[in-house]
Amino acid sequence: MRVKKAMLRDVGTRHSEFVNIVRSIRQSLLEVAGANADEFTTVPVQGSGTYAVEATVATAFSNIPGKVLILENGSYGKRIASICSKWGVETEIITFPETEMVDPSVVDSVLSLRENVIGVAMVHCETSTGVINPIGEVGEVVKRRLPDSTFFVDAMSSFGAIPLLMTNIDFMVSSANKCLQGVPGFSYVIAKKSKLNKLNGNCRSLVLDLAAQVDVLDNTGQFRFTPPTHAMLAFKEALTEFHEEGGVLGRSKRYSENASIIRCGMESMGFKTLLDHDLHPQSYIITSFYYPATSKFVFENFYEKLSRTGHVIYPGQVSTAKCFRIGTIGHLYPDDMQSLIDAIRNVCHDIEV
């Protein structure tokens, strides 16, 4: 509620108070990432997380000879590939099974045989399944094989809740409304200055140009175009709550407990998880469950009845199995998880599943 209340006032986009808020947010995000301000910078981007993904592709990869290797094991890896295609970026997609992590040894083998690779892109938390990919190990491989290449990580649904090291990452993107628990309205890129500074004038988009965006932010403290003031007021308060909870470790502890309650409760009703969570211990962001093996279970009916109880879940995004997903992040606590389990149990009884 504190985050929502923070939006109940107006602030001018050019006012010194807002300029200071933006400066504070940019610095705080570096601290959450454990990134040195001499080496990295934060570039806020108006729009959802996908805007930041496209801004990174448009700034770091378009207009540059060579190809980008995309490590894909789900819908959000495919989205990066789609964005690259729109921008005419040459890509090679290395596909892994949806229920498995990206394998660093495979990446190592592929990179040893490739030439003219300018970058590698991957998703940290593949939200279509819940798989957490080993970005640390992959980053080490990328920089050992191709020290001058650009390593780009989509950490949309993991940043702030799953520990990560920025050591080998050149561009990392996330969004205000995921694990840091702000509201939708803007996303951000944490970029290595040595990379970004070389990209002035490279982007063919006006609004998605990260180099131009950070140049104006650094020199004036202001956005080039109208920023989402209320979303940023909310995010400043969300960062305060984040630190009060104990930062990344505190948040991951609560999310892990949430996920454990959901999985235990669902398994007690006979639902089976898509992933073997003994093999995916960090997968506490979202959990995919198989549909029950009965014709009485119709997801649309199940979803509608559940939503009437005030509980909303996600449809599946797995291409090889019929699943639905339950997210366990956000301003949600163990009591909320138990409430959902009770509601699902009642709905299942109602539809005779």
From TrEMBL:
<dbReference type="InterPro" id="IPR015422">
    <property type="entry name" value="PyrdxlP-dep_Trfase_small"/>
</dbReference>
<dbReference type="InterPro" id="IPR024169">
    <property type="entry name" value="SP_NH2Trfase/AEP_transaminase"/>
</dbReference>
<dbReference type="InterPro" id="IPR012703">
    <property type="entry name" value="NH2EtPonate_pyrv_transaminase"/>
</dbReference>
<dbReference type="Pfam" id="PF00266">
    <property type="entry name" value="Aminotran_5"/>
</dbReference>
<dbReference type="GO" id="GO:0019700">
    <property type="term" value="P:organic phosphonate catabolic process"/>
</dbReference>
<dbReference type="InterPro" id="IPR015424">
    <property type="entry name" value="PyrdxlP-dep_Trfase"/>
</dbReference>
<dbReference type="InterPro" id="IPR000192">
    <property type="entry name" value="Aminotrans_V_dom"/>
</dbReference>
<dbReference type="GO" id="GO:0047304">
    <property type="term" value="F:2-aminoethylphosphonate-pyruvate transaminase activity"/>
</dbReference>
<keyword id="KW-0032">Aminotransferase</keyword>
<feature type="binding site">
    <location>
        <position position="325"/>
    </location>
    <ligand>
        <name>substrate</name>
    </ligand>
</feature>
<keyword id="KW-0670">Pyruvate</keyword>
<comment type="similarity">
    <text>Belongs to the class-V pyridoxal-phosphate-dependent aminotransferase family.</text>
</comment>
<feature type="domain" description="Aminotransferase class V">
    <location>
        <begin position="6"/>
        <end position="290"/>
    </location>
</feature>
<dbReference type="GO" id="GO:0004760">
    <property type="term" value="F:L-serine-pyruvate transaminase activity"/>
</dbReference>
<dbReference type="GO" id="GO:0008453">
    <property type="term" value="F:alanine-glyoxylate transaminase activity"/>
</dbReference>
<keyword id="KW-0663">Pyridoxal phosphate</keyword>
<dbReference type="InterPro" id="IPR015421">
    <property type="entry name" value="PyrdxlP-dep_Trfase_major"/>
</dbReference>
<keyword id="KW-0808">Transferase</keyword>
<feature type="modified residue" description="N6-(pyridoxal phosphate)lysine">
    <location>
        <position position="178"/>
    </location>
</feature>
<protein>
    <recommendedName>
        <fullName>Alanine--glyoxylate aminotransferase</fullName>
        <ecNumber>2.6.1.44</ecNumber>
    </recommendedName>
</protein>
